[in-house]
Amino acid sequence: MGTVLALRRGGRPSLSPCQGRRTLKGALLSAKGVSRRYGRIVALAPTSLEVHPGDALALIGPNGAGKSTLLSILASALDPSDGSVTTGTPNVGWVPQKPAHYQRLSPRENLVLFAKLEGVQDAEEVAGRYIGLLDLPDDGRLTAELSAGNQQRLNLAVALLAGPNVLLLDEPTASLDPRQRRLLWEVAAQVRAQGGAVVFATQNLEELERFATRVAVLVGGELVFDGSLEQFKASPEADVFA
Amino acid sequence: MRRIGLLLKKDLRILGRSPILVAALIVYPLVFAALVGAVVRYAGDRPTIAFVDLDRLPEELTVGGQTFNVPAVLDQVNENAELVPMDQDEADRKLANGEVNAEIIVPRGFASRLRGMVESPQLLLKTARGGVATRVEQQTQALVYELNQRLQDAYIDANLKYVRLIVEGGTGTFLGNEFDVVGLQRAGEMLTEIEQATKDPEVADRARELSNFVRQAQLALGASDESLRATANPIELEVDTEAGRSWLLSAQLQAYALALTLAFICVLLAAAAIASERDENVIGRLARGLVGLTDLVVVKVALAVLVAVVLGLVIALVFGVLAMVFDVTGGEPWARLPLLALGLVVAGAAFGAFGVLVGVVAREARTAVLVAFLLALPLVLLGLLPEGTVEAARLISKAFPFSHAVDFFQSSLYDNDPWSTLAKEAAWLVGLAVAFGAAARLGMRRLLA
Questions:
Q1: What are the residues facing B60 on neighbouring strands?
Q2: Distance in angstroms (rounded) separating the CA atoms of residues B75 and B149
Q3: How far apart are CA B436 and CA B348, in angstroms?
């Protein structure tokens, strides 16, 4: 619990040396008519979506609904076949479903490398801070030798390095234990508290009800609902969890 | 540039974490180069030839007073071609199957015709079409030339025996018949006796005239030894084998070793490195603005170049030390190291860019390695084909860096005036690197999907 306590004690804990850049107004992230096709297969039909400061937007839908595709497009990790994404800030942190870091490097080496690539000053120091913050192993072991939970936390740490305003989480708690889940949501809450937003794909009803302020439902690659949590609960789309 | 450096450093760190892989990277191409070199050398130089002896040649064959040891003559041929004795049916079948490259048939009556020295006996050569047929023909011609030379000596010796008989006189045999010859020497003496004994001045004049002719004939026939041998061999080839570079330390093998190392290591490494960025799911993270896709291609090509330079110089060092230890001459392996390094850079870039293209097309590291190997192997073998064998193969080979790299390395280490070859091959390698690199960059989006 040491890291959680450290977060609480800090009052306004610094997640990143870049947080001073957050002076955004209006939408942090805006997708206009983005779609993705693989040959004849439509993974995502033309979709428009805006993410505003303070949003905790849950993307839900059955497997293969296009949630990961939409998150990858929002993260600029995947080119849309049509449409465009505009960001009010360059700091978008992306935590893909499958960990995205080098298996033959240690967690510290991964963090230092990505911090340097992000242009973070004092990359070594920042890497050390996130190792402590997210309770990552720092004994020289390669990432490939770590548990799925540790790898997922490293995945989150890499996404946090640049001090994101928008955190995109693709089913982030799938391999985390309850303590690690709590830690993750605390970090996400801090991003929102600092004027940012969190977009997360989930299949977990409890997480949806506890953390989401807004819900977008994708079915068969189409966005069929986008509204507040209360609106969602009252809508027929809530049956997606039935 | 800084980001390229960071990723390059990361790739080298990951590479260094597999000592077995690093050891294999060094040892494998050297072993492979030696094997390919041996295959190329012996496949080209030592065709297998069926030897069909219908005449049942004896162990020893005497021609014109000179005795030939038949197995020894055949052993001599074995240095250049593998002669395998067999009967005609088997030889015909194996030639048809391609198990032997040619058939040499010694027809019945060969030895007796040879001994008779009246008509030329014939050997029959059967070859398959295409392939190494021309080379086999050349080898067999060389064999027949060698045998003819030895037979010529025997024939000349036999003819000179008759000449000596005419000059000196004595008893000789021809086609089994024995006969006596007075000889020019004795004939001259007899004519002098007649000239001195006769009282008839006309007879004395004729005897003197004949005596002059006999002296002239003696002089002329006395020089026949040299002139006969000169007529038989207008140009003689003297072979002087000096302590030059052995095959193992030859320019060719060193160039092959270097080019093979690069062809496999750089192609496989670059292919695996770019594909593993996708396998590790990192490419999406990098492509979000951290590192451009062009930069990623450059990183992997730079990785190939770096490995090529290090491994290439290690190999050159090994060859140079071996050359010093065995005190062999020829080439300038030390003085030309900077030129070699330049070749390693451009060749490494060309092979690396090709590898990146393979990795981009294959998308997965395991598939990329397999495809890279499957592509590199035949392309290397095409580059090993001698010029003029198969035109299409030569053209395909030109579009792959291997043959250009071999020519560059060979020229940079051993040519007295390498500059035009180096400029041409460097231009080829740079052109191929740019072409493969551009194609790889075009396909990079595949890795994001």
A1: B69
A2: 17
A3: 12
Answer whether B290 sits within 8 Å of A114, measured CB to CB.
yes
Judged by CB atoms closer than 8 Å, whether chains meet at B13 and A109 is answered as yes
Q: Give the number of other Cβ atoms within 10 Å of residue B404's Cβ.
A: 27
The answer to whether A113 contacts B280, with C-beta atoms less than 8 Å apart, is no
Please name which of A116, A115, A106, A97 lies closest in space to residue A158, comparing C-alpha atoms. A115
| Cα(A193)–Cα(A14) distance, integer angstroms | 12
Flag if B288 and A92 touch (Cβ within 8 Å).
Answer: yes
Interface of B with A (CB under 8 A): 3, 6-7, 10, 13-14, 17, 280-282, 284-291, 445, 448-449
Beta bridge partners of B51: B85, B104
CA distance A107 to chain B (A): 13
Chains A & B: contacts with CB separation below 8 Å: 61
B-chain residues within 8 Å CB-CB of A118? 290
Distance CA B321, CA B159 (A): 56
Q: Compute how many other C-beta atoms are within 10 angstroms of the C-beta atom of residue A213.
A: 16
Residue B65, pLDDT above cutoff 80:
no
Residue A76 structure tokens: 């600029």
Beta carbons within 10 angstroms of residue B216's beta carbon: 11
Sign of CA dihedral A140, A143, A145, A147: positive
Q: Residue B285: which of A77, A104, A142 has the nearest Cβ?
A: A77
Instruction: Please state the three-class secondary structure of chain A as a single string.
Output: CHHHHHHHHCCCCCCCCCHHHCCCCCCCEEEEEEEEEECCEEEEEEEEEEECCCCEEEEECCCCCCHHHHHHHHCCCCCCCEEEEEECCCCEEEECCCCCCCCCCCHHHHHHHHHHHCCCCCHHHHHHHHHHHCCCCCCCCCHHHCCHHHHHHHHHHHHHCCCCCEEEEECCCCCCCHHHHHHHHHHHHHHHHCCCEEEEECCCHHHHHHHCCEEEEEECCEEEEEEEHHHHHHCHHHHHHC
User: CB distance B285–A118 less than 8 Å?
Assistant: no
Cβ within 8 Å, pair A77-B288:
yes
Determine the pLDDT at residue A199.
94
Name the minimum distance, in Å, from the CA of B262 to any CA of chain A. Answer: 24
Instruction: Chain A: give the shortest CA distance to residue B23, in Å.
Output: 18
- Give SS3 for B114: helix
pTM: 0.68
ipTM: 0.79
Q: Which of B7, B17, B287 sits opposite A104 (nearest CB)?
A: B17
Per-residue pLDDT reduced to its tens digit, B199-252: 888 888 888 888 888 888 888 888 777 777 777 665 655 655 544 445 555 667
Q: Enumerate the H helices of B169-291 as residue ranges.
A: 184-197, 201-222, 224-232, 251-279, 283-287
| Chain center to CA of B63 | 34
Tens of pLDDT, residue by residue over A167-180, are 999 988 887 888 88
Integer Cα distance of A160 and B384 in angstroms: 53
Give the integer Cα–Cα distance in Å for B362 and B369: 9
d(CA B95, CA B126): 8
pLDDT over 80 (residue B390):
no
